[in-house]
């Protein structure tokens, strides 16, 4: 009899059918405040109801996510019961307090407060509460990640808890480079799901490169059709030029881009598109050689690196082309931010181009012997040369154009070289000095330094244990986790407020497949998520590693490829 019982128990465990399991609130990113009473618990069971305001489409969508995620993790089927006030799971929008000052209206919510929430569990059930629907979505993700993973569970015990949370930074980004390698719409949706799981809210979509133009521009139909295809791709490591001699291409239609915008918005992620200019434009020059300084011909680049062929800064057709492209970009992407690149634009051609030099003379631009703050790096150019100022002139024209469409310009930190345009946002990639310099000039900043935030670089010391990657220095989980975006010893309290947030970047010179992309992304995105979300005093890498296995169970459940070794 005993043997039969034991055998039956083993079969139940093997099948994943278990009695009530216990939730764990030690999630990633770690919430701001968690008060737990482990002596009491609420048991979540199948058939329980979720109540919410069904007249609000956003809240309704999040309620459906809660139902889906609970089923996905535990096998428990909840019911959507919007009119049932006795339901055990409740989603509610709360009103900000004015702290008893009845004569005054509450102050406008900050971007962080718009994503704040509370999650409480008591004898009555589970309450997700927030000021805005975005906060309810973040609360739902916290509930999701707190659940145990089981194929089928009779119930989940949730210890009584009061979680109060909001992100540290308003901008929490991840870049995916689709210029070097093209990724499917289906993969990008999976990428966005992974971002949402980690609390990220800005998807920086790098759409154009020397090696391929991926955005459909209806005014220039050949731009994507021809500019997206390179005749071959370099496959040798480092600077060894060995090619596969296989044509490679792919681009996104405007309807596909709108589909990504919609999908991201449902997960409270903004899509920041990037058209990189005036450098990294050889794919465009291939289609429009008249926009280059030499007239071409220009092949779509088959190898990586910084190309000397750039848009002609003195050709008036250049600005016409750019405004047409960015105009259609604004039509497709509602993002308040539009990224213009601005990095790695060698001025060799401009120095010798009659049109560029004539434009410099017309604008009265002169070189200045001024050291530009920056950490150097690939393609860096120090000093305010007349040619750098010509690039600032182009930036200003595009900034004014974007402002007329209600958008803000973001550029890589090279845009500092010729002097910043009025409202430019600086994305600091060559270390943090560019970001610090911009904040001192009262410009908004996104910190994305390559030595901490570039996930195309190796994550393990032993290169033989990972696929070929970019660069020679390691960006491990611990290195990324150690990054502090705000530098109090360099910035005043007022200047620190210009740091909008942090971004991780996945460049794809050597990342051609979805599995490799996820291997580069995870679990380093977990490290970055705590840099983006948590206060510095909350962070502890040993504690992070102890919490990571729970998140990795979700990676396994969702079929994500990830690096199992954490350094």
Descriptive tags:
19 helices, TIM Barrel, single chain, alpha/beta, eight-stranded mixed β-sheet, 2 domains, disordered N terminus
Low-pLDDT sequence parts: 1-18, 376-381
Amino-to-carboxy terminus distance: 49 Å
Backbone shape: globular
CATH fold topology of the largest domain:
TIM Barrel
Radius of gyration: 26 Å
**CATH homologous superfamily label of the largest domain:** Glycosidases
- The overall strand count is 20
Oligomer: single chain
- Number of discrete domains: 2
CATH-scheme architecture of the largest domain: Alpha-Beta Barrel
Give the % helix.
Answer: 25-40%
Task: Report strand %.
Answer: 15-25%
Mean pLDDT: 93
Structural class category: alpha/beta
Most strands sheet: 8 strands, mixed
Q: Number of helical runs?
A: 19
CATH class of the largest domain: Alpha Beta
What does this molecule look like?
34% of the residues lie in helices and 17% in strands. It has two domains: 18-96 and 112-165, Chitobiase/beta-hexosaminidase domain 2-like (Chitobiase, domain 2, 2-Layer Sandwich); 171-558, Alpha-Beta Barrel (TIM Barrel). The radius of gyration is 26 Å and the shape is globular. The strands form four sheets. Strands 2, 3, 4, 5, 6, 7, 8 and 10 form an eight-stranded mixed β-sheet that branches. The protein has helices spanning 2-14, 57-74, 111-114, 133-146, 185-197, 221-227, 254-265, 282-287, 316-332, 348-352, 354-363, 386-404, 433-440, 450-453, 477-481, 493-496, 514-521, 524-533, 541-558, and strands at residues 17-18, 21-22, 33-44, 49-51, 79-80, 89-93, 117-122, 125-130, 152-153, 156-165, 171-177, 202-206, 208-209, 212-213, 270-277, 337-341, 408-412, 425-428, 445-447, 499-506. The longest helix has 19 residues, at 386-404. With 567 residues, it is α/β, with parallel strands linked by helices. Helix 5 (185-197) packs parallel to helix 7 and helix 9 (316-332) runs parallel beside helix 12 (386-404).
